[in-house]
Amino acid sequence: MRQFRVGDSRPKAFTLVELLVVIGIIALLISILLPSLSKARENAVRVQCSSNLRQWGLGLSQYFVNNKGYFPYNGPAILPNWPDRGWDTSWNNTCVQQFFEQYLIKNGTVNERQKDNVLYCPSQEWHRAQGNDNSGTGGLIGYFYLPHREVPTPPLPNQMIYNPSGFTDGLEWVNKKRPSGKYKSAPIASDMLQFDGSVNSWSKASSHIKREVPTGGNFLFEDGHVTWYPQVKDLSRPNQWSIDLGATQGGWQCNYRIFDPDIPNNR
Q1: Cis peptide bond prior to 154, omega within 30° of 0
Q2: How far is residue 159's CA from residue 157's CA, in Å, rounded to a whole number?
Q3: Strand ranges of the sheet holding 194-196, from the earlier edge strand across to the other edge
Q4: What whole-number distance in Å separates Cα of residue 191 and Cα of residue 66?
Q5: Rounded to an integer, what distance in angstroms lies between the CA atom of residue 98 and that of residue 91?
Q6: Could you say which of 27, 65, 144, 176 is the most buried, measured as most Cβ atoms within 10 Å of its Cβ?
Q7: For the chain, the helix, strand and coil percentages under 3-state DSSP, each to the nearest 5
Q8: Each residue of 168-205: b (16+ CB within 10 Å) or e?
Q9: Is-contact 188 146, C-beta < 8 A?
């Protein structure tokens, strides 16, 4: 058996203390980097979402030119079985689905659009999973499209209520047919911010969820600009959220109106 003498070279290894120090340093670096990476990813999603809505703005501008200045019609059927009616704030009728096909997604196949679809915020997973055709079953997509609904008064049974208490102008707003006019400063499309009262949760159907509450939403306006509004508790506002209640149906709340008296023509 070989005997080691003074001066022999022996294999070296980490001691337990050294190993624990290295593990601690790695854990510390991960704890520092993860929030930054998460924030960077969230910002990237917001930017992509904003880009989607800007494309909506361009598409709507072209639609105005080709259709005598009208928004795509999203109300009840005007002929037997045509168009399929728009339903609540999430479902869109035949006319709006044609707008999607002709102005927003005409240059790609379903498979090509599967990952980066302009009809869905990148964070909108639930609604994306519900549709099984190119624009979602029944026109169900990942954004709210708001105007030109021509909602009947009084509302039909089981119909979304667009003018609940504290938002008396909601019905008049969603009935508007053309850009400009009284509600020219109100949004025309936005992220989905929906609260399901049956399970007391935002998380199933809303976009930009963090800790089971939306962090906010992107809103498209008539002039084509898109603005991000954070969703935070604000006790000074009627429903105590910075983005207030827009419409209700049963336990569902669809939040889409910026309640800000400083915005012109937006009561």
Answers
A1: yes
A2: 5
A3: 194-196, 252-257, 244-249
A4: 26
A5: 13
A6: 144
A7: 30, 15, 50
A8: eebbebbbbeebeeebbbbbbbbbbbbbbeeeeebbeb
A9: yes
pLDDT per residue as tens digits for the range 10-32: 556 667 777 788 787 887 777 77
In whole angstroms, give the CA distance from residue 124 to residue 208: 8
| Structural tokens at position 243 | 């983005």
H or E segment at 145? Answer: strand 143-145
Q: Is the peptide bond before 122 cis (omega within 30 degrees of 0)?
A: no
Cα 74 from Cα 93, distance rounded (Å): 5
pTM comes to 0.79
What is the rounded distance in angstroms from the CA atom of residue 68 to the CA atom of residue 65?
6
pLDDT of the residue at 109:
53
Q: How many CA atoms lie within 13 A of 196 on its CB side?
A: 10
pLDDT tens-place string over residues 93-109: 889 988 998 898 865 55
On whether the CB atoms of residues 171 and 162 are closer than 8 A, the answer is yes
**Type of residue numbered 122:** P
